[in-house]
Each structure stands twice: as C-alpha cells, then as structure tokens.
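Technical annex B. To support the medicinal chemistry partners, we prepared a structural model of the target in complex with nicotinamide-adenine-dinucleotide, based solely on the information shown next.
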Amino acid sequence: MTPSDKALVPFVSVDHMMQLVHHIGVADMLRGLADYIAHDFARWEQFDKTPRVASHSAEGVIELMPTSDGENYGFKYVNGHPKNTADGLQTVTAFGLLADVDTGYPVLLTEMTMLTALRTAATSALVARTLAPRGATTMAMIGNGAQSEFQSLAMQAIAGITHVRLYDIDAAATAKCAANLAGTGLHVTACTSAQEAIEGAQILTTCTADKAYATILTDNMVGAGVHINAIGGDCPGKTEIAPGILTRGDIFVEYPPQTRIEGDIQQLPEDHPVTEIWQVMTGAAKGRTSDRQITIFDSVGFAIEDFSALRYVRDSIAGSRFYHPLDLLADPDDPRDLFGMLQRAG
Ligand code: NAD
C-alpha cells in the first residue's frame, strides 16, 4: 500500500542537511538563516512564547522548544550533555518539526544538530552586527568544540570579523578548530590561555561546556568597549561570565523568562535590567550607545530561532533532491476508517 502524497512528510536526514549546506555554501546559508531570524525577530509579538520545557538529570538536560506564529507550529528536541564528548558523543544533538497550524499536519521533519550550530552562529553574528563596536575585526573564540567553527564563520560572513583567536582547555580542540578554519580566509591564532585569546579582540565569544558555575571571563580580564557573545551558559547551574562583568555591562537577551532561568543572568537578582534583542533590532530599544560600553549577549537559544531555521530549510528544499518523503502519518482514504486501514494491511 502506498501512502497518499498529502500524508508524506519531507524528512531531511543528516546526510541531506550536509548536502544542502554544501549546495548553498556555508557563508550563504549563515546569511540566509540570519535573514530569516531577523524577519521573525521583527514580528516577535506574533509568536506564542514559553520558556523551553527542560528535563534535568545529573549529567545533562533534554529540552523541548515549541513556538507558533499562528500559521506554522515548530518545535525542537535538543539535549545538552557536557560529559558526552569523553564517550565519543556530541554535547548537543537535536531534531525538529514544522507543522501547518490549519490542519496540524507536519510539513517538515529534520535533523537539527547541524542546523542548531548554524542557527546559533547566525544569531550570534546578527546580534554582534547590531551591538559590537564599529569596525570590529577580531574575535576571541573561547571553547573550541562543535559550535566554534560555525561561530567563527558566521562572524566572518555577517559581522565583518577577519581575525579569530582560539583558546580551549583542551589544546587538541584548538588544533582541530584551527585546522578546520584553514582556507576560509580567516586569520587564525591559537592561544594558550583565555587571557591571551582576548588580547586585541573586540568580540569575546565564550562557548564552553561544563555543567558548573564556571568563570571563563573574570572581572579583571574585560575592559571597556567590547561585545561579549556568551553562548555556553545556557542551563541552571551552568554559567561562564563573572557577575562583576554582568553588572558593569549592558545585557541583551532573547526571551527574559527563559534567560533568567538558564542564562548567565541567573547569577543576578531577578529584577536586574535586561534588554530584549528583538527590540533593539526593531528600533524600539537602544543597543550600543557609547564606544566604552560593554555589551553582553546572554544567549541561551530560543524557539523562534529554530522556527526561523525550520522555515528556511522548508523553503530551501522545496523541489530539491535534499529530502526523503517520509511515511509518518496514518492517513486512510476514509478518514474515520483508521481500523479498516490497519485490517487491510494484514
Ligand atoms: P563541545 O562539548 O563540543 O565543546 C565545548 C568545548 O569547551 C570543549 O572543547 C571543552 O574542552 C571546552 N571547555 C570546557 N571548559 C572550558 C574552559 N574552562 N575554558 C576553555 N574551554 C573550555 O560543546 P559545543 O557543542 O561546542 O557547545 C558549547 C556550549 O554551547 C555548550 O555549553 C552548549 O550547551 C552551548 N550551546 C548554546 C547554544 C545557544 O543557543 N546559546 C546553542 C548550542 C550550544
């Protein structure tokens, strides 16, 4: 028995996602994702919003991230397990789904481990383009794991970064990142401490994984006028930035009810002022107001960014060879004869 076309859901495997990225080109895909994210941030108020639903365990977290704009509904399943790399597994893996609100039928099921790295990097660079000091050319990239090349390439493609200074507590991770970035046009410097990595950098990206109140940037390390792109503090009990830096700088977030639980600002009082980044992008709130200001993007990753990424993939694969039609939905000819469909299959 063959399922009807309307019940077949486009499924993008990891292999197809990688082919799609190569077909579009990494830089163009990062720019395309940033455009979709910017479009959705501009209509932020249309979305259903909720902090993600998190299930915590001793070693990690499993999260569901839903949202809807009234026309489409999307969600991502994502984990965060810092100990995984020691066992040869990813810290972060993900898959996601986009559905038509009108019928409730899914219109896309896709891998999102690659896509999360791309969308996180596109968001970081979009925000850096908005908040970083004018003429920024150099980024410190602290934490050289799975996200790091994506972060570096997005900053190059979207925020004008030409130099990246790498540091990781594991020198092998830095060597891997430097080798992967060879030939991209970025000038790459491998450093042996976080202090060395931030020398001369206008953008400081922290993208480490440790289920702890870590201090990747201490108060005395950070001077005036930089932009901090804090990626790795994204879970209760998991932070990267010293509270003294947070109180000296101006903090920009995705969705405050989620960031107050998960972001670096979990270290600050509940009422510490933060600015929602979508408001800066729409002109409703101020971003950088002086050369000496420290701006901090306390990134945790929000459902609307995944929704944008799902929309981008749905639009990019239409009419292409980059998906399989998946027999995911039981769809009998007579909609009320589900049992008859089962019986005939016997
Ligand atoms: P990963 O495990 O592949 O890499 C993390 C790297 O950090 C490792 O190489 C590790 O050696 C290094 N590290 C750990 N402690 C360090 C320290 N004190 N100083 C320097 N380096 C240190 O993880 P990943 O997939 O690259 O993710 C990095 C972090 O980003 C994770 O915490 C993840 O949860 C988070 N993340 C956030 C978002 C978001 O939207 N904000 C999206 C994806 C991932």
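Notes passed to the chemistry partners:
The first strand starts at residue 8 and ends at 12.
The mean pLDDT is 96.
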